C-alpha cells in the first residue's frame, strides 16, 4: 500500500464519511458505487497486504467495501486484524460482533 500523510488520510476519511451520509444526493451515490466496484476488482488486497496498511487506510477500505459509515467514526477503534477479517468476509460486519 502507498504510504500517505496522516492529514491526507484524515481528509479522505472525512470525505468518505460525507459520501456515506448521502447528503450529496445522486452524485455521492454514484461516487460511492464507483469506489465499491473499484475495491471489489482489486485482486491485490489480500490479508498480508491489508495487515501492512495504515490503520486509517484499512478503515477506509472496510467502510467502502461494507458501506458502513461507523468504521470511519473517530470514537470507534477496531483492531487492525479484525478490520482485515471484516474486509475479507471472515468476520461479521456488525461492529458489535
Report on this model:
- The chain is mainly alpha-helical and 97 residues long.
- It has helices at residues 6-21, 26-40, 47-52, 55-66, 80-87.
- It has one domain.
- The chain is built from five helices and no strands.
- The chain is globular and about 35 Å long.
- The protein starts with 5 loop residues before the first helix and ends in a 10-residue tail after the last helix.
Which SSEs are present, and which pair or pack?
Layout: H1 6-21, H2 26-40, H3 47-52, H4 55-66, H5 80-87
Helix pairs in contact: 1-2, 1-4, 2-4, 4-5
Keywords:
single chain, 59% helix, 5 helices, mainly alpha, 97 residues
| Whole-angstrom Rg | 13 Å
Biggest beta-sheet profile:
none
| Number of spatially distinct domains | 1
- The separation of the N and C termini measures 27 Å
What order do the SSEs take from the amino end to the carboxyl end, as H and E? HHHHH
Structural class: mainly alpha
Question: What kind of oligomer do you see?
Answer: single chain
Tally of DSSP helical segments: 5
**Estimated helix fraction:** 55-70%
Overall mean pLDDT stands at 88
The percent range for strand residues is under 5%
Question: So what's the overall shape?
Answer: globular
Low-confidence stretches: none
- Can you count the beta strands? 0
GO cellular component, one term: nucleus
Amino acid at each position: 500500500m502507498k504510504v500517505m500523510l496522516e492529514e491526507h488520510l484524515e481528509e479522505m476519511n472525512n470525505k468518505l464519511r460525507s459520501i456515506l451520509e448521502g447528503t450529496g444526493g445522486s452524485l455521492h451515490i454514484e461516487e460511492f458505487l464507483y469506489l465499491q466496484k473499484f475495491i471489489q476488482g482489486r485482486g491485490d488486497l489480500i490479508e498480508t497486504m491489508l495487515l501492512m496498511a495504515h490503520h486509517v487506510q484499512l478503515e477506509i477500505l472496510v467502510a467502502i467495501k461494507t458501506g458502513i459509515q461507523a468504521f470511519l467514526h473517530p470514537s470507534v477503534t477496531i483492531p487492525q486484524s479484525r478490520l482485515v477479517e471484516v474486509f475479507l468476509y471472515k468476520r461479521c460486519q456488525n461492529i458489535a460482533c
